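Hi F.,

I've been meaning to write this up properly since the lab meeting, where we talked about keeping a consistent format for the predictions we share between groups. The idea is simple: the sequence comes first, exactly as it goes in, then the structure tokens exactly as they come out, then a line or two of notes. No screenshots and no reformatting. I'm using this chain as the first example so we have something concrete to point to.
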Amino acid sequence: MTSTQGTPTPRRSASGRVPRRGYVVLLAGLLSNFSVGILYTWSNIRDALEGYEEWAVSQLTIPFSVGGLTFALLLIVAGSLQDRYGPRPVMIAGILMVGGGTILSGLVTRAPGLFFITFGVVVGAGLAFVYACPRPAAMKWFDPSRKGMINGLVVTGFGLGALWLGPTQLLLLNTFGYSLERTLVTLGLLILAIGLPCAAVMVDPPAGYVPPAPARDAGKPERETHRHAPSVALGTAVRTRQAWMLLGIYALFCSAGAMVIGSVGSILSTQTRGGLDGAMGPTLLVLLPLAVPILSVTNAMGRSGGGIGSDYLGRKRTYVVMHVVLLANMFLLQFWTTPGTILMGALIAGACYGAALAVTPSIVADYFGLKAYGANYGFVFFGWGISLLLGPQIGSSVLAATGSYIGAYYAAIGLLSLSLLLVFLLRQPRFTADQVLDGPVPLPVAVAVAPAPAEAAA
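Output, unedited:
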């Protein structure tokens, strides 16, 4: 149905609530991300491959590194395809690549070169295709004031994925006595069984759909996070300083978190007074196997909490809180020498790291809109890829040179200080009419997000 001017007539839910399909898309987005966390269970796969004579010790981290790099590099491609063809076909392709790549990996465990391709390239590419779709699709069903909540909930699924895949791997390998080959094939089939139904229901709203707006106090000023942002193409976004600043914030801030998350076991062992042979050795022995699962939960909680909190505090204020907390935490970590306090510091770092993965995609939507969101966020996401190389490398290099992580904490403080400076310099970008993809904000949308009719008409 169209108006006399030829533009789609806005469609509203008859009940004034988000249609059931919107919640289905949100739940499917969370579950689909939950289904594909195979990359983050690499330590289990690595331990099994270590006993294969075909694998050299120097090769055991290559599939994980290639997978993470492929994921980061291809997200911009996957996002562009999602923008053009919609979420369903792109996400189906992603699930097929993750599940199929895992199955193929189970068939080539004795050939490291082929394993690099099946697990690193195929699974990594599939992760990009899956990750690119649920957030923009779900955000289109809900009012702009819910962007942080949507991003937080969807990426929480990604953070929790290792919690079912990791234990399932160990159950199959250690309890059921499965070979690594049979385990990977089984996991690939499980990924397909969970992910494909989720991908099948992943759709954008119909043309002209206007999300129902929640009740707001007309006497209060409209928050920046509640506004409908005009959409711009990737070529326009990358010519703004804000896109590059967000990329830089991602790289600098997440480097500090990645350094701690990627080395939590080593930090616990190195920094605990006396180590395993000391008075706190028994406590350390208990916490070491629990550190990664607990950190995964905290990371996921940071994602949902950071996203929801940013809807109310605002993105920049949330960024500032995250930076201040993580700066204080990195400084204090050097003084903590008991397993409990060290793990507490790691959990704080994990929560802040998770929050960044919800706040950053939300602010990209605030600044550059949703029509080309996949490509625009894919560009900013390069910063996250850089952080995976920068943070862990700083930690391992400092440890090798000094025998402790104290120098790495100070390096992280420097990175965080630069990131915080970029946050203070962030400003909402402005675009000319010819740069905006969806034209002037339609009146029904303006009415939907304005705090009062009089203000909308002004």
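Notes:
DSSP finds 19 helices and no strands in the chain.
Confidence is low (pLDDT under 50) at residues 1-10, 440-458.

If this format works for you, I'll send the rest the same way.

G.
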